[in-house]
Structures are given as C-alpha cells and as structure tokens.
Amino acid sequence: MDTDPPLQLRVFDLNCWAIRYLSKVRQERIGMIGDTLSQEGFDLALLQEVWSERDYCELKQKLTACYPYSHYFKSGVIGSGFCMFSRYPILDTFLYQYSLNGYPYMLQHGDWFCGKAVGLLIIKICGIIFHVYVTHLLAEYCRDKDAYLPHRVVQAWELAQFIQHTSKGADVVLLGGDLNMHPGDIGIRLLRGWTGLRDSFADADRFEGCEDGYTLVPANCFTVNKELQPFPLGIRIDYILYKGLSRFVVKCDSLVTTTGTAPGKSIPYSDHEAVIATLSVQRREEAKGSSGSAVGPELVDVVNEARAEVRVRLHAAERQRYSNGRMASLALLLLLLQAAMGLSSLAGWDSPQPFPKFSSSLLSLLATVVLLLWMGLYVFHTIEVRVLQGTEEQMRLALQVLQDKLSSM
Amino acid sequence: MDTDPPLQLRVFDLNCWAIRYLSKVRQERIGMIGDTLSQEGFDLALLQEVWSERDYCELKQKLTACYPYSHYFKSGVIGSGFCMFSRYPILDTFLYQYSLNGYPYMLQHGDWFCGKAVGLLIIKICGIIFHVYVTHLLAEYCRDKDAYLPHRVVQAWELAQFIQHTSKGADVVLLGGDLNMHPGDIGIRLLRGWTGLRDSFADADRFEGCEDGYTLVPANCFTVNKELQPFPLGIRIDYILYKGLSRFVVKCDSLVTTTGTAPGKSIPYSDHEAVIATLSVQRREEAKGSSGSAVGPELVDVVNEARAEVRVRLHAAERQRYSNGRMASLALLLLLLQAAMGLSSLAGWDSPQPFPKFSSSLLSLLATVVLLLWMGLYVFHTIEVRVLQGTEEQMRLALQVLQDKLSSM
Questions:
Q1: Pairing state between β A248-257 and A206-208
Q2: In what order do the strands lie in the sheet with A83-86?
Q3: Count of helices and strands (H, E) across chain A
Q4: Best residue in A157, A365, A391 to probe B by mutation, most B CBs within 10 Å?
Q5: ipTM reported for the complex, 2 dp
Q6: pLDDT band at A139, cuts 50/70/90?
Q7: What is the mean pLDDT of residues B262-279?
Q8: Which of B145, B179, B155 is nearest to B316 (CA)?
Q9: Of the candidates B168, B357, B364, which has its C-beta nearest A168's C-beta?
Q10: What does pTM read for this prediction?
Q11: Which residues of A fall within a CB distance of 8 Å from B393?
Q12: Which of A136, A151, A272, A381 does the annotation list as catalytic?
C-alpha cells in the first residue's frame, strides 16, 4: 500500500467579501468565483464571507455538476458566512461557535452579530479521512491599538483546542480561512504550536503570486489603502494549513495566490487574494505514534504570552462590568425615585412638584433607556469575564501538563 | 496484557441544587456532600448545579487531600454550574456551549442565563485514557406542554455529536449528568443511539436504591410534589452512561442511588438523588474496529423523529421572529412620527399639538422600551431560526449517510 502513488489535492480558499448592499460589484464577483471554480475543478473550495444564503444558492446551482457536495454553516444573527464545495461526499459536519467575538455595541464593525465559528467537515477521499476546518477570525481594525486582540487570541486558542480534540479520527487535517493574523502574531504561533499544523506558504515546493504570499495587497482595487498604510507591500492573513496524522504524510507541491485581479479579468474576485494549494498525501510505511505538536520550551513561552494577553483583558473586562453595573443601578435608583414621587402625588400628598411633568417624563425615558442598555452591557461583560477566566484556567492547566511532559523527557 | 485484572472505578454523580439565596439549607448540604465525598473516596465525582464558585472553592478546600484534581467549568452569565473532582490527574479540558438554551424572556425559569454546556475532561488512569463528559440539559417544567422540548432535542443532538467527534482518542467514554429526560424520551434515544453509550442502570449487575432507578422521588423532602403529580413514584433523569472503545470493555458492576435522605442523615444531599456507579474496565484481547453506534433502521427512525421536532419549532420560531420584527418596526415608526412632530413645533410651524406634552413623552418612553425589547427579541429569534435550520440540515445529512450505510450492509 505504501507504494501507492500520492493522492493529489487542489484546495481553493477565498474570503469572498460578499456583503449584500455593501460590497462592491458583489453579484459580478460571485459570478466570476462560480465560473472559476467550475472551470478549474478544484477538489475542495473553502469560502468565507458569503453572507447571503442567496449567493450560496446561486453558487451551488452553478457548481452542482462539478462539486456535487456542499455545505453552508449557519450561526449568529447574519450567519457564519462560510461554505464549502467538494468533489467528494461529505460524511459529517460540526460547528463550534467561538465564545468571544467582539462587542455588540461596536455596531460600526458588526463582528459580534456574525457568529464567528469554526466549521468541521469530514470527507473521505480514496479511503483517506480528511477533517477539513474552515474559519474566519475576528478582524483587526487597528494594529496599534487593537481592542480585539485578546478576543482573537481566545478564538485562536479555541480553534487550536477544537482541532486537537476533534481530529483524532482523521488521517489528514486541513484548515483554510481568513485568520486575520500576520504569520508572526501570537494567535497564529499558538494555533500552529498547539496543533502542529504546517503553513502551505512556508512549506510549498513552488510558489507563485504576491510577494511573501500576501493576501491583502495594494494592487487590489478593492483594498482600502489607508488600512494598509503600515504595510505598504501588503499583509498575509489568509492561510491553508495542513498536517498528516499517524499513517499519512502531507506535503505542499505548490501554492498560488491571485495578484490583485482575477486571471483574465479586469477586477479581483474579492478584496482578499485567493489562495490555491496543491497538496500531495502519501501513505507512510509505518504508522507514527504521535501526531500532535512538537512539545518544546518555545511552546511554553507561546502559551504564557497568550495567557498574559487574556489576563490583561480580564482585568479590563472586570472594570467595565463594574462600571456598567454601577450605571444601571443609578438609572434604576432614579426610576424608583420618580415612581415614588409619582405615587406620592397620586396619593394626594401635595408636596410641591420639583420638576415640570414634561421634564420629569423625559428623565424617565432617559433612565429607562440607560437601565436597559447598561443592564445588557453588564450581562455581556459578565459573560466575557467568565469566558476569559475559563480560558486562563485552561491555559494554566495546559502549561502544567506541558511542563510535566518537558521535565519527563 | 489482557490477563490484567480489570480496573475498578467508582463514579459519583449528583445535581446539587445549590442556588445561593434560593436553595434550602444549601450550606449544610454542601458540607454534607463534601464530607461524603471525602469519606467514600470515589474515583470521580461529577457535580451539577454548583452555581456559586464560593461553594466550589469550599468543596475544593475540603477535598484536596482525597481528590487532588478538580475543575470548575465557566460559561454563561451565572456559570455552567458543573464541576468535577478526581483522584487522577486531569490532562485537558474543553467546553462546548449548546447553541440553544431556552428563552431570555422566561425569567421565571432562567435557563437562558445559565450557559448550559457540556464539559469534557481527559483523565489518564493506569495508562487508560478516559474522556469524561459532564452536562446538564434544559429543564422540563411542564411535560404536557413542554415549550423547551425542541431546544432539549437540539442539545441532545449537539451532545451526541460533541461526544462522537471528540472521543476518537479515548479508551473509555463516561457521561454523567442531569439530562432532564426520561429514559424513553426522544432526546435520550437519540443520544444513546448516535453514540452507542450504555445506561448504567439498565446494565448494572446489582442495583440498590429507588424503584426503577428514579432520581426525583416523592420521599425527598425537597421535591415539589406538584411537579411529580403525573409520576407519583418518581422519575429518572440523572444518568451515568459509558462505553469502551476499541481495545476496552466496560461493564457496570453495581449502581446505587440515594433514597430520599443522605445515608445516616436527616436530610437529602439535594432535591435530586445521587447516582453512584461501580464500573470495571477490562482490556480486550483484540482491538475491535468500530466503536460507534450500531447502525440500524431504528436509528433512522429516531433521527427522523428528532428532525420532525426541530422542524415544528423552526416554523414557530420563524413566525415569532416575524411578529417581533413587525412590533419593533411599529415602535420605530411611532418614534419617528413623534420626532417629526417635535421638530415641526420647534421649527415654529404652529400646527395645533394633538396630544398634551406629558402624554406625548410618556408615549415616547413606551415606544422606546418596546423598540429596544422587541429588537432584542427579533435578534434572539433570528439566532434561534439559524441554529434550528443548521441542526435540521445536519440531521438531513446524517440520515443520508445512515441510509447509505444501511443499503451497503
């Protein structure tokens, strides 16, 4: 069996930037993506930011002949946005929604409403079990003052844990998606260190595309150049990661990215570049015992660094929760006072009314709105505090187990 | 190796009913539970409804000598409520929060705020890897008109899926918890059918305790007898389920439940009875291929039944979302109208004011409250609809794969 020719697999990954009414020339681009997937006949296509189910259905209709199997993951208020097209049967699917995903009051970013998650698809190709993960992590709006960094670190940790816990039955693990992290960021070091996943860009035998594998580049006409100011050549935030388990070795024969425009077209597929990896999967002569990450002192440092990030946010979230609780209590107090004054005047205790009725009822309106909103915020930050405490505790345990392993080596 | 004596394991499971300020004689009962765990020296103790972290810390302090390893799972606004004490080291933990968990506006039940979840603990005992799951599903308040049934079915499905996807690396799977389902309910048939978990009550060589293994009984002085009216002898909703994978066989030597009062005490540990299983784990001579459920036509029927339940709720949730959206839109319209009237009077267009200022501002208050609340409800039901659609789609795929398997058998 070990003399079998390797299985070759072409995987397409793209953040499609398909937000109804907001993304430019969306319909034309969805049409282009469908045409390309149809012509190229990849084995798997992992798409993110297909926010509208109508767009997914349009793609599905177009691609049925070439990709008979597909799945759209549903979560959150406006969906997870990711879907997958496959030439091979999907045996099972599973979705894990990240515990933290930004703040509901940051309406201008809207991440909280998206239900960011990681989707797992189990696919059997020529008798080999593939666990294919597709995800999209919290965006980075300002690298210098990144309010979302701790949430993204928690997401990267949950993603790493989810992959480790659900991939024991797999022969090959694939992860594709917009991770919104640069290759050296703490989240990606944590994810790769913990899972042992390899980076198709770093390991590809041949590479063709944007310099350094960038997937957000100024040459793309949809890129907001202001956002790329600190990185004038571009950044790499879209990845295809992989590993073979036990009896399988996976290597990346080639990696290609689009370079600003779609091949043969005048516009790009999206504001991100597409990433196309050609992987070859070979059966090993002998099964290898462990398939996990290489435990080393550097992994301890990475987990420690991530834990420190979580701890900083934990303290801030506790402070925010406290001040939200105080504000809600003040509003409640004000409402109770007004109710008491209203009741006393109804009961005929003719104390002189300190405010005119109109101002008084306006004040009630304000107090009610403040009470409802700040109570909601209090609940939100309480959940955030608990998740951060839980993650910190999990990381503490992980560090302990790592150090035990290291000392027994 | 297969001639090794079997490993014996004593597992304690209890829903502790420890809600601060609400549960009767809570502190005394927590003390009693701690004393018993300490004296009996079980191998594992799985506790639910330990809502206060202070209670957990008290238990932890008391039990450090006997159970050096413990974990408290954090989720939701007031925590998951479950924790675990172990004589053996915990290697890893992972938490999966159920996508649906009741309704935020059902304040009298409060389930939505609890962050119901399933916690996984990985424990190594004498070289055998145990995946121990602890959970607490949505309560059933009225069996005849159970508004929570579809959410509980979704939870049972997610629990089954979570166990199947995360237990591939285990030798033995254990699940303990308050499942809030009778043994013949659709959710428990789905869970057991899908995972192949065995029921320690049905399989125990020896049983001692309440009739039919009931864990909510009228003899318990904390039981609200009205709730047990349709079942005068009691109901069984707390379980210890198990299975051995691949190279291991697990059997239940004995199962014991408490019978209304704690042994040697005048009051019970909780309003639920404790369940204590003695399991023996034996290495098989030869590894067995599949560890999953036995695929048969009856499993197809069970998944179909669960899917029908999900579909009924999906239609109802869609209707609720629509009416919530309509209500929020009307409130917004009213507010806009009032704002226009206010602006016109400020601009000096002296149209006669149709309402007195006081009534008008009271109306604004009402419209604002309605807008905020109903918008929140709209968002909630949108999430519910998406989760139900996703679950229904997952079940459809599962049925397809099951039927393919059956037809190829």
A1: parallel
A2: A69-72, A83-86, A44-50, A7-18, A275-283, A248-257, A206-208
A3: 7, 13
A4: A365
A5: 0.90
A6: confident
A7: 93
A8: B145
A9: B168
A10: 0.92
A11: 71, 74
A12: A272
